[in-house]
Design goal:
- By secondary structure, the chain is mainly alpha-helical.
- The protein folds into two domains: 4-136, Rossmann fold (3-Layer(aba) Sandwich), CATH 3.40.50; 158-391, Tetratricopeptide repeat domain (Serine Threonine Protein Phosphatase 5, Tetratricopeptide repeat, Alpha Horseshoe).
- It has 18 helices and six strands.
- The protein has helices spanning 18-30, 38-41, 48-58, 74-85, 116-131, 158-162, 171-174, 178-190, 218-231, 235-247, 251-263, 271-283, 287-299, 307-319, 324-335, 343-355, 359-371, 379-391; strands at 9-12, 35-36, 61-66, 89-94, 109-111, 147-148.
- Strands 2-1-3-4-5-6 form a six-stranded mixed sheet, with helices on both faces.
Amino acid sequence: MEDKSAQHYFLSYSRTDKEAALKLAHDLKAATVNIWIDQLDIEAGSLWDAAIEKALQNCKGLLFVASKASVSSDNALNEIHYAIREKKSIIPVKIDKCKIPLLIIRHNYIDLSVDYNSGFSQLLDRLRHEEGQPTVAAGAAGSAAEINTKRQPSTVNPAKQTGKKSRIGVLAALGAGLVVITLALFLWLGDDDSDVAQNQSSSPELKIKDTTSKVSGTADSLYEAGQESYEQKEYPAALDQYQKAAQDGNISAMFELGNLYYNGEGIDRNHQTAMQWFTKAVQQGHVVAMYNLADLYENGIGVKHDYQKAMQWYTSAAEGGYKYAFANIGDLYFEGKGVGVNYKKALEWYQKAAAAGEANGTHGLAYMYEHGFGVDADRTKADELYKKAKELGYKEEE
């Protein structure tokens, strides 16, 4: 007979937050989530400590109610340590403006502190995804901006780190030949408009500005004019110039239109249209657009969460030489999203990111060395890598 006790999620919290934890537990149970909390699920006459230990051993995953009290609670941190050791799923759920403990800083967290209802919908969506059940469409799940991650926004601006505007003239060439054919076939076979959700909510700003293709003639001139207009923050003019350049076949203009629609610069924010323009750029082999598509799929912005597609597009971007995809692939392997948990693979991708001078991957590699995931623990090596990540621009979660 199947052990039903092994199907629950364990709710870990500080006694200081017992009322907030109890409300969350009641709401989850009302939504048919099999959640275990000591206040409701320890039978009369049972030994308290033994019951908690058994529930933790049998749980499929741990929901950590993150607060200023719980992040300093020895009992709560011990429960996290156990979950990590036993390779159980961990979902941090913030209820105030605390800092996520270093032990789980690389796990995506849900924020209930700003908008409880929106955050709760996102939590349900996350749990349904882990169960392999149909998830709530992104528009119904609330603002994607409230799904915070352990890393800096994944759409990092490479130009911002150097203080110069990015002029990557080789990326369009990387999409030529077999890469373009493969990507086009993938889009034709596996991607369609049914994935696009009606989500016009606010979300983290895409920071990438790229000047990839060099189409001669009018299209090139219009694209350059659009870049100048954008730099002057004349967004309506930039929008018009990018649209005309894109119509004439300029790949980078397609990409920039995706950014404008995503960020709502010069036009109402529209993630669905942004997705369409990024897809057009991808079909022409635009590497950074591949990365942006992956980011949208990973975070459920404008589309339903789909970690497998996120992994596919991050991999395509990485194969095109885009170093910022390396860390994201490492994260997915580390957390088992779209793939099984694989610390060896995570380590390999973090090493590639560190070798390329990418901050997030360098920090991920430091974390692996600190805790001995996929490699022998080495605190000295971890400290060196943490220092390097900071020098490269990594910022801790606040």
